[in-house]
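Lay summary. Proteins are chains of building blocks that fold into shapes, and those shapes determine what they do. In this project we predict the shape from the chain. Here is one chain we studied, written as its sequence of building blocks.
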Amino acid sequence: MINYFSECLLGVLLFLALVSGCGGPPPIFPISGKVTLGGKPYERLLVYFRPAKGDVNAFNLGVGETDKNGELKLSSSGGQGISAGEYRVTFSCVYLKSNGKSVSSTEKPDDAGGGVVSVERVKSPYDAATSQEITPVTFVVKKGENKFEFDIPAK
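And here is the predicted shape, written in a compact code that computers can read:
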């Protein structure tokens, strides 16, 4: 009798778990677009989407990198896109200087004299390093395709 009761209880619990949906990952939605800095596209300009409210998880922390035309595709640990919601958006576009001269992304900087420094092109309150809470850029991700286009003011 106890065995029959345990089997029935287990069956009911399994049924309830199936009916309730068990949670599962939230759907993610693709984000594409164009990002420029002072009206000019930069290759490898990084774009970060962080939730405006609540905790960060694998589906609501997005990052993308622009190509040489400023075209952007954003992804998260959950795949190509992020979950629906409101996001704060920050940016980073770093370049190297060696001995006072800019170094292209294909060159290897000469650091023999210790003169290699990285320089951020994005100013506060748009930069990713210092402006996560104060960035004026927000974006609402909705079901379906999402287009993000923004021109960051130049320094």
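What the prediction tells us: The chain has a mean pLDDT of 82.
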